[in-house]
């Protein structure tokens, strides 16, 4: 560094205003013996000083001024009469509002304005603060100016901004109008191929003709491609866009489409259910229950229906209702009676309570093992060892229709699990339990209809076998699979 430069720097450090402005200017420009170092230059320039603001506004390119958040200095310099600052500020305001950039493209200082970079900054600003229509105009302007350079990073950032705009448009349930369809498609595909799940999800739906609030009908009007769309949906689902699994199920389950594949449809439905989609859980549970021929299959089906119902899915709840036999007697009277029984026979009282909340027959209530039969979703009445007829002795899975029913099952399991050693002596076999029940009812003046469901062997068999249950519950089943 020359002696005069060292002297100038010393004066600037001592607080000389003119020296500070000159040192700041040289650092910003990298001129007259000083290396370019923007941060150092800004340290020497007081931004509330009009002269310093003018140096800042005229020394840095417009894009850099905006990136450094120096718009106040640009405005101050423009107010102070700087023609360059006024031109830059006007260009920024025009691009920020999504105005036509043509006048600035034709101006003498177009290269200095760095219009493509500034347009990208304007779009980024609009994404955070402006209405959706203004954001679309800014993006359209950025696309119009993008051809002026071959900056791959800038093109990638523009594509990322488009995806964010699509995401916002879908959240606001309003189409992103005003952008050329091909520009939208190219940006989405670019980001989708880089594992952007939002882009892949939007592109997959559009190509498959699935409604997406972010797009008007013209965007994908000439670009329908079911196989390509399904591939992008799969990419989105694999990246964590869980809603895509259900779309894939619907596409592959539709025999009219070119991508129809029942095995893949079931796989996608299972994926959607596993990822917590209530509709998928309900449909998977309904399909499994319709096909069930053994207890494990019924249990798995009820598991999925229970998860869907817990999320407020009404059709799933209706299917669960169809598996529980009604016990129409008054809850208040039954509760009082159970408490009377509990004083002398707590095991029997628990069985009566389970019978009411799970719709058990008299035989099921007396033979169920609450500790063995407890499930996260309800209760399984196991095979009855005291009955020789297979149809009457077969196990049955019964869902809990309320939190109170599930609590009753857990309390019963806990009681019978802790008192298992005493229960055998206290309860005896099925014959002894029946005798104790009869004596308790006679003593208290109770009736079976207060606690037990009535059902024929054919009705019980229909609740155990999926195809027979499906015929019995065909209306709610149809609604559950169609909704």
Summarize the structure.
It comes from Pseudaquabacterium terrae. This protein has 483 residues and is mainly α.
Describe this structure in words.
It is a single chain. It is built from 31 helices and three strands. The chain is mainly α. It folds into four domains: 3-96, no CATH class; 119-259; 278-324 and 473-482, no CATH class; 331-454, no CATH class. Helix 13 packs across helix 14 (197-208). The radius of gyration is 37 Å and the shape is elongated.
Biggest sheet, open or closed, and with what strands and sense? 3 strands, antiparallel
Distance between the termini: 78 Å
- What is the CA-atom radius of gyration, in angstroms? 37 Å
| Poorly predicted regions | none
Tally of domains? 4
Number of helices: 31
- What is the residue-averaged pLDDT? 90
Globally, the shape reads: elongated
Strand content: under 5%
Question: In total, how many beta strands?
Answer: 3
Helical proportion? 55-70%
Helix/strand class: mainly alpha
The strands making up the biggest β-sheet line up spatially as 1-2-3
């Amino acid at each position: 560094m020359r002696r005069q430069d060292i002297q100038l720097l010393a004066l600037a450090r001592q607080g000389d205003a003119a020296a500070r402005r000159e040192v700041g200017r040289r650092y910003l420009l990298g001129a007259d013996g000083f290396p370019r170092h923007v941060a150092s230059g800004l340290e020497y320039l007081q931004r509330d000083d009009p002269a310093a603001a003018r140096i800042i506004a005229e020394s840095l390119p417009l894009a850099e001024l905006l990136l450094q958040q120096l718009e106040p200095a640009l405005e101050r310099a423009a107010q102070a009469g700087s023609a360059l600052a006024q031109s830059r500020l006007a260009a920024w305001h025009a691009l920020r509002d999504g105005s036509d950039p043509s006048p600035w493209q034709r101006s003498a200082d177009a290269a200095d304005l760095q219009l493509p970079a500034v347009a990208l900054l304007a779009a980024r600003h609009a994404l955070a603060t402006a209405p959706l229509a203004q954001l679309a105009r800014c993006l359209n302007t950025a696309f119009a100016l993008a051809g002026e350079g071959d900056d791959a990073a800038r093109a990638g950032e523009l594509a990322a901004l488009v995806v964010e705009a699509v995401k916002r448009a879908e959240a606001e349930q309003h189409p992103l109008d005003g952008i050329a369809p091909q520009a939208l498609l190219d940006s989405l595909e670019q980001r989708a191929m880089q594992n952007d799940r939002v882009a892949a999800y939007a592109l997959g739906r559009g190509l498959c003709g699935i409604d997406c609030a972010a797009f008007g009908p013209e965007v994908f009007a000439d670009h329908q491609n079911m196989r390509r769309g399904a591939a992008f949906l799969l990419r989105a689902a694999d990246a964590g866009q869980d809603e895509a699994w259900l779309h894939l199920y619907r596409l592959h389950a539709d025999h009219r489409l070119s991508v129809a594949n029942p095995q893949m449809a079931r796989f996608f439905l299972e994926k959607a259910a596993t990822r917590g989609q209530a509709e998928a859980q309900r449909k998977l549970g309904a399909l499994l229950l319709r096909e069930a021929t053994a207890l494990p299959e019924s249990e798995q089906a009820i598991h999925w229906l229970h998860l869907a119902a817990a999320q407020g899915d009404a059709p799933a709840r209706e299917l669960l209702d169809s598996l529980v036999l009604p016990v129409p007697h008054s809850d208040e009277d039954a509760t009082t009676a159970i408490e009377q029984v509990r004083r002398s026979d707590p095991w029997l009282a628990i069985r009566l309570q389970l019978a009411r909340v799970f719709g058990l027959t008299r035989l099921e209530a007396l033979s169920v093992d609450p500790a063995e039969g407890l499930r996260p979703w309800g209760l399984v009445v196991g095979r009855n060892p005291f009955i020789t007829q297979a149809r009457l002795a077969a196990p049955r899975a019964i869902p809990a229709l309320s939190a109170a029913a599930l609590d009753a099952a857990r309390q019963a399991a806990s009681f019978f699990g802790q008192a298992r050693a005493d229960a055998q002596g206290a309860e005896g076999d099925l014959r002894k339990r029946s005798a104790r029940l009869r004596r308790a009812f006679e003593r208290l003046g109770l009736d079976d209809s207060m606690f037990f469901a009535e059902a024929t062997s054919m009705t019980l068999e229909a609740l155990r076998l999926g195809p027979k249950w499906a015929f019995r519950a065909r209306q709610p089943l149809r609604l559950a699979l169609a909704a």
